[in-house]
Amino acid sequence: MAGYERPADHVRDYIRRFSLDNCALGSQGYNRVLLQLFGYMGHGKSSLINSCKYVLDDGEYHIYAKASASHKSVTYSRTAYPLTDTITIVDNRGCATFNAYETGEIYAQLGNFIPLNQRVEWTNNYIQMINRLEDSEMDPNFTDFTIPVFVYSVKKGLAEGEKKETKEFIDNCRKMTGVYPIVVLTNKTSGDFLQAEKEFLLMGVEKVIKVENYTREDHGRTQGRHKEILHFLYSVLEDVNFQMRYRKNPRKERIERKKFLLNFLHEREVTQRLEQTSSQDIRN
Question: What's the domain count of the chain?
Answer without folding.
Answer: 1
